[in-house]
Amino acid sequence: MLFIAGFVFIYYTIWALLLPFLSSDSPVQSLFPAREWAIKLPLLILLSGISAVGLFFARVMLSEARKKAVKGGKKV
Fold it and tell me: Any transmembrane segments, and where (predicted)?
């Protein structure tokens, strides 16, 4: 896992920070997607993660509310 994290960090750093300084006809440019994805991809991952955490908290809160309602005799 540490190797994969290190590889992703180095790849993204080269892609986002160092690639603009290379000429567009460099063979290194073909190893990376378009630069617009250097922003879009992390944003999509961040939004997916925040949504997953929010849905998890909502599910836990609803199940706790149902348990309290059953315990108190109410219906939720």
Answer: 7-23, 43-62
